[in-house]
Amino acid sequence: MVHPSWLEIAILAILLCISGSLFWLRFRKPVDVIRRSRDNPDFQLRPLGPRIRQFVWEVMLQGKVIRERPLPGLAHAFVFWGFCAFALVTLNHIAAGFGFPFLSREGGFGKAYFAFVAVWAVAVAVSIAGLAIRRFVARPIWLGKVAPESGGIALLIFILMITYLAGLAMDETTTPARANWWLHTFTLLAFLPLIPHTKHLHLVISPATVFLRRAGFSKIPPLVGDEDFGLDTGKDVTKLDALQAYSCVECGRCTEHCPAYNTGKILNPKEIILGLRRYLNEEGPGNEEPLLGKHISMEAAFQCTTCGACEFQCPVGIQHLPVIIGLRRGAVNTGKWEDDYGGKMFLAMERTGNSLGFASSERLKFIEKNELPIYDGTQEYCLWLGCMGSYDPQGREIVLSLVQVLRHLGVTFGVLRKEKCTGDPVRRLGNDLLFQQMAEANIEQLKSANLSANATKLLSICPHCVRTIGEDWKEFGAAFQIEHHSELLARMQEKLPQRTDGRERVVFHDPCYLGRYRGVYDQPREVIARWGEVEDPARARERSFCCGAGGGQMFLGEEKGKRVNVERATELAATGAAVVGTACPFCQTMFRDAFGTLSQTPPKLLDIAQIAAASIESAAGRAMV
Ligand code: SF4
Ligand code: SF4
Predict the structure, then answer these.
(1) Which atom of ligand 1 is nearest to the CA of 254?
(2) CB under 8 Å, gap of 24 or more: what pairs does 173-180 form?
(3) Is 427 found in the same domain as 300?
(4) Which of 87, 89, 178, 208 is the most exposed place for a label (fewest CB within 10 A)?
(5) Domain check: are 21 and 159 in the same one?
(6) Which of 58, 240, 253, 274 has most ligand 2 atoms within 8 Å of CB, for mutation?
(7) Three-class SS of residue 609?
(8) Nearest residue CA, atom 5 of ligand 1?
(9) What are the phi and psi torsion angles at 579 (to 5°)?
(10) Beta bridge partners of 607
């Protein structure tokens, strides 16, 4: 705009005030809700390094969005980068409306910058059109109901780009150029108040959400004081929970990867987050109405396997698991959750100290029968058996194979005379009291066995034990070093025989608690590669599909819809591999059950410890597993 009249300046000023006020009127609500929510007692901004790194990667470079969905991710990234490029020309556009442009089309920098932004305008126009077609025409099922405002926003962005490009092609002094300038301005001022009213609120707050999210994957915050029961009512919602609830962009990435949703359960992680947002909008953060009920389904919250696929996928830093487990805590700790299977498991744990309900003497008999050495503080490793390794027949086989491999490798180890469940299933189901009892009894036991935070490590066949001991017990001051057997075996793989003939195809299933939770993907594959040809199923590594056991689901009886383990086992068997490789005793049990339902001859199921033992046996010329 050149030489605006006083009337034009007055109209622009009024429209700017109206647009800004409407923006603030709508934006004030989430800001107010977040401000009034409870503080996050465990929140620490430091260390800043990882936060800055994740901000640069996820926000500035849009790395996560592109990595997980390359084409729509790239389109989204072009829109974001285009907006960044547009910031300066938009400020200049408004300044020009008041008669004070600071970028000139004639000046060297201005000329270059307008041309640079023109390239972005084309990229944004094409990308936004593509995203709109995907959202309104292709309509992937996990997007769910698409809000019509999204279409309006896409149209406004498209008009902004076209009017910008048209303006560049026009003589600024002509009437059509002036009309085009005003069309661009009206569009811009209409766009602004729509932002806080739609999912596009994420444009403003998601950079903060990514930067401020809790450190660590699936972090369960500690309860504070005797009155904290988890997420029971609106009073328990924290600032981070509220910020994350308002950041959801409704992209459905979490839903797309959720094993519960994909097998016909009512759980939809996106709806959990949107349900929390609806609660905050309608009831407010200080409300005493239970969170589970009108806005969030209790049944859905208890269908979660805690696989972490949702949290891993979310492009705006939303952490579903602290919310889902928080809701379970709120229901269990206040006695609102009633479930026969869950109740029986809690009782078994209280009485016997293990999730399977066996007498602890059975564990001792197993140790004595197999002459497992007792840990006395002198060995390199304390082998943690866990409930599955202590009582479950298949879990015991895995332990015995690992013992054979450790002896072959010359690694010294011992087992504890007494162990209780780490508390993993009760922790994830929200029973904090029982979890505390299990953790504290075990910590005492380990300390009395001379295992402290020194160089000695714990070793486990179970990724759930590794996670719970290594992370969750920190709440009680424990700092034990623990690793999964795949990590140790991969480190010492050179000492495992390399099988050269008769190598079988092994499809490896990444356990959620080893992969997404611990970032261990290559090590089990390296162990398997000593013996057979490793291959991946369709969903592998970070995108692995849960076996269905986690989050206490293994103990909760019949599932609704298709069984998660059957879905995954079918996918694994469909690869045609002779062997399914596992690295978690829960996964193995789930697949053993599921294979019984398949019509074709199922593949062999072997843990990586059993595979390593098979390599040793085959090298020694003995019968293979
Ligand atoms: S953790 Fe897994 S099962 Fe639970 S909601 Fe997320 S994706 Fe679904
Ligand atoms: S929670 Fe995250 S992944 Fe799920 S719909 Fe919202 S923004 Fe997308």
Answers:
(1) 7
(2) 173/2, 178/1
(3) no
(4) 87
(5) yes
(6) 253
(7) helix
(8) 269
(9) -130, 140
(10) 582
Q: What are 27-33's contacts with CB under 8 Å, separation 24+?
A: 27/195, 27/196, 27/201, 27/204, 29/196, 29/281, 30/196, 30/201, 30/205, 30/242, 30/246, 33/242, 33/246, 33/280, 33/281, 33/284, 33/285
> Does residue 485 form part of some domain?
yes
Q: Examine the domain organization and report whether 464 and 326 are in the same domain.
A: no
**Cα of 242 from ligand 1 centre, angstroms:** 19
Give how many domains the chain has, as a whole number.
4
Averaged confidence pLDDT in the chain: 94
Asked if residue 155 belongs to a domain, the reply is yes
Identify the burial level of 208 via C-beta atoms within 10 angstroms of its C-beta, where 0-12 means exposed, 13-18 middle and 19 or more buried.
middle
Tokens 């935070």 locate to 453
- Domain range spanning residue 452? 353-491
Least confident interval from 149-153, 192-196, 330-334: 149-153
248: Cβ below 6 Å to ligand 2?
yes
Listed residues 442, 460, 491: the one ending a domain: 491
The string of pLDDT tens digits covering residues 248-297 is: 999 999 999 999 999 999 999 999 999 999 999 999 999 999 999 999 99
Contact in structure between 307 and 565 (CB atoms under 8 Å): no
Span 502-532, pLDDT tens digits: 899 999 999 999 999 999 999 999 999 999 9
Q: Is 457 helix (H, G, I), strand (E, B) or coil?
A: strand
Residue located nearest, by CA, to atom 4 of ligand 1: 304
Pair 289, 310 in one domain? yes
Q: What is the pLDDT of residues 134-160, one digit of tens each?
A: 888 888 877 777 777 888 999 999 999
- Out of 249, 296, 321, mutate this one to test ligand 2's pocket (max ligand atoms within 8 Å of CB): namely 249
* Mean pLDDT across 313-335: 97
Same domain? For 440 and 363 the reply is yes
Residue nearest to atom 2 of ligand 1 (CA): 307
Instruction: Calculate what percentage of the chain has a pLDDT beyond 90.
Output: 87
Ligand nearest to the CA of 69: 2
Ligand that comes closest to the CA of residue 309: 1
**Which of 244, 274, 306, 568 maximizes ligand 1 atoms within 8 Å of its Cβ, making it the mutation to test the pocket?**
306
Best residue for ligand 2 mutational test, from 201, 203, 316, 321 (most atoms within 8 Å of Cβ): 316
The DSSP symbol for 197 reads: G
Residue 268 sits in a domain of what CATH number? 1.10.1060.10
446 and 529 both lie in a single domain: no
Residue nearest to atom 2 of ligand 2 (CA): 314
- The confidence band for 625, taking pLDDT boundaries of 50, 70 and 90, is very low
pLDDT surpassing 50 at residue 132: yes
- Give the pLDDT of residue 624: 45
Q: Do 426 and 558 belong to one domain?
A: no
Q: Which ligand is nearest to the CA of 261?
A: 1
Reported as a single tens digit per residue, the pLDDT across 51-63 is: 999 999 999 999 9
Q: Is residue 42 a part of any domain in this protein?
A: no
Task: State the CATH number of the domain containing residue 454.
Answer: 3.40.50
